[in-house]
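Narrative of accomplishments. A recurring question from our advisory board has been how the design workflow behaves on a single, concrete structure rather than in aggregate. To address it, we present the structure tokens for one chain from the evaluation set, followed by the sequence designed for it. No filtering or post-editing was applied between the two.
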């Protein structure tokens, strides 16, 4: 079941694009802007706090040579910004800024943008920022994170089962406890070694770089992983002493208190490095995350412990105690899950309009199946308890009759042949109920493992609230992200092509226009002529022509002035041959 869950995780992780939890809100200078004077610095603003790296900025001049810059820092001391100083004098032309930072919840993000001094260059430096993550490193990192979650659930859940449910024999639970401890140790070490190549977007071989590992140990994710490793030592001591304390009732309260402190400390090493550590209501979010993780561990680890106990030494009282604890865990899970979903989504539209929302829907569906399986298990538990009651009553009724003082001795009864057990003997019925309960608990454990897979993928996905904030954010200087419109057109018998038009910044005033023509096969296509005009019918303005120039592969106009806000009609005319042309119109919204 463990290997199957890891395989599903690798498949899900490899199929989805790399994503992170901080989003770029603005750049100063704005992307594509033309400045009369060279700026003294480049500033990026993000939707949440980010961590800086030694190579957070690369600035390339029009010829592709790297510009000497200062050390990356902050703007006005704000943790959601990244800033780098530029040389005093920059020549004319277009400069490319490539950047890479780490979001507050430990995921790397990268990108690039351009700005021009004086006038744009005829050519610009090409920077391939690539993926924010190396696919193999990212897959290994996700697998290690899943194993760490699973191991924590085994450790915390089985320990809670021993302390709270008090099974008569805990010897069968030692093996999964030891397996959980070693798995958590190995997964944490793997996460620590993979941290540097994961942030840099390089292959797993870079995990052996001692200098990069030393740098990792100074970052917040590295410190948290070190803290988790340090906690494993007292956890091991606790597990050894827990078995001894189980035989002494007076030590159980102290054992429970120590175990609760260790479990809380372990949960905090995740809470401080995940979604809860960034965004809104951080203290409440961290508290909710810790409770959610502990409730998950008590339920999932308890299921494994219960399944092991049912196979080794079944006990109805233990099952009944776990049933009550599981119900409390589910209540905590639902309450904290609803809050975390609201915090991550931000709107109902994000539930179906974002990857985060769709994954959340999948998790809710799986949890619903899990709750249905849990309800079946509770019915089996109730039936098992009721089947045990008549046996206990008969045992209590087997009291020898009193003999009068001085009376004759009671004659010894004649030995009788033992009667064969009836088909409906209580022990046989109880065995059948235990088998049904084992199957139901096994189904719960399997579905819970899949839920943990989806949860791990969910923690690597940009939350809907962050995506919405980034989309609505206004970059520095009032520049919004560029408006991109795709217009299909008929090429006659050859099929249909399309024109992709970028209007930057897509607001009133001066705009830069770029247009790329694609043929029916999806490849870049050369056309004899491309014309573009804008009309505002409500104000009787236009047509305003965009004087597009063929740049050899794309068409552009450095300046297009749209004087008023409103819904403009954009008319595109593509000449596909010397005698044939086609025109299409689209309506676009221009804000002030």
């Amino acid at each position: 079941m463990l290997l199957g869950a890891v395989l599903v995780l690798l498949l899900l992780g490899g199929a989805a694009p790399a994503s992170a939890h901080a989003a770029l809100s603005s750049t100063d200078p704005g992307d594509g802007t033309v400045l009369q004077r060279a700026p003294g610095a480049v500033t990026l603003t993000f939707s949440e706090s980010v961590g800086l790296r030694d190579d957070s900025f690369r600035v390339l001049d029009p010829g592709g040579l790297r510009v000497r810059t200062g050390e990356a820092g902050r703007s006005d001391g704000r943790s959601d910004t990244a800033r780098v100083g530029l040389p005093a004098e920059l020549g004319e032309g277009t400069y490319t800024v490539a950047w890479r930072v780490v979001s507050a919840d430990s995921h790397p993000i990268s990108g690039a943008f351009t700005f021009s001094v004086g006038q744009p260059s005829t050519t610009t430096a090409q920077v391939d920022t690539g993926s924010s993550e190396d696919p193999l490193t990212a897959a290994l990192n996700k697998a290690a994170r899943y194993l760490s979650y699973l191991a924590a659930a085994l450790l915390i859940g089985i320990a809670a089962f021993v302390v709270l449910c008090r099974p008569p024999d805990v010897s069968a639970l030692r093996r999964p406890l030891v397996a959980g401890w070693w798995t958590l140790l190995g997964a944490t070490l793997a996460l620590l070694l993979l941290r540097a190549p994961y942030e840099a977007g390089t292959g797993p071989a870079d995990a052996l770089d001692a200098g990069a590992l030393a740098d990792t140990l100074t970052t917040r994710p590295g410190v948290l992983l070190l803290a988790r490793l340090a906690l494993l030592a007292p956890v091991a001591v606790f597990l050894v002493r827990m078995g001894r304390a189980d035989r002494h009732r007076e030590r159980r309260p102290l054992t429970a208190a120590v175990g609760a402190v260790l479990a809380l400390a372990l949960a905090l090493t995740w809470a401080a490095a995940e979604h809860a550590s960034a965004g809104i209501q951080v203290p409440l979010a961290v508290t909710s995350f810790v409770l959610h993780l502990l409730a998950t561990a008590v339920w999932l680890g308890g299921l494994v412990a219960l399944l092991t106990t049912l196979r080794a030494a079944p006990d109805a009282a233990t099952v009944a105690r776990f049933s009550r604890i599981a119900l409390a865990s589910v209540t905590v899970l639902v309450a904290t899950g609803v809050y975390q979903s609201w915090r991550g989504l931000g709107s109902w539209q994000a539930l179906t309009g974002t990857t985060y929302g769709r994954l959340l829907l999948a998790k809710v569906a799986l949890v619903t199946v899990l709750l249905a399986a849990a309800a079946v298990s509770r019915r089996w538990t109730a039936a098992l308890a009721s089947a045990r009651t008549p046996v206990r009553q008969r045992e209590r009724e087997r009291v020898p009759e009193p003999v009068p003082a001085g009376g004759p001795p009671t004659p010894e009864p004649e030995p009788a042949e033992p009667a064969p057990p009836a088909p409906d003997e209580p022990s046989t019925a109880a065995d059948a109920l235990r088998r049904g309960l084992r199957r139901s608990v096994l189904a719960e454990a399997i579905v819970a493992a899949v839920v943990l897979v989806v949860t791990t993928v969910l923690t690597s996905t940009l939350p809907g609230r962050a995506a919405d904030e980034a989309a609505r954010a206004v970059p520095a200087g009032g520049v919004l992200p560029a408006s991109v419109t795709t217009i299909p057109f008929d090429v006659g018998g050859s099929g249909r092509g399309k024109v992709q038009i970028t209007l930057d910044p897509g607001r009133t005033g001066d705009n830069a226009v770029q247009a790329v023509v694609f043929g029916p096969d999806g490849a870049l296509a050369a056309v004899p002529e491309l014309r573009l005009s804008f009309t505002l019918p409500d104000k009787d303005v236009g047509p305003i022509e965009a004087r597009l120039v063929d740049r050899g592969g794309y068409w552009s106009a450095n300046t297009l002035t749209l004087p008023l806000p409103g819904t403009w009609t954009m008319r595109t005319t593509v000449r596909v041959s010397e005698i044939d042309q086609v025109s299409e119109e689209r309506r676009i919204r221009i804000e002030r």
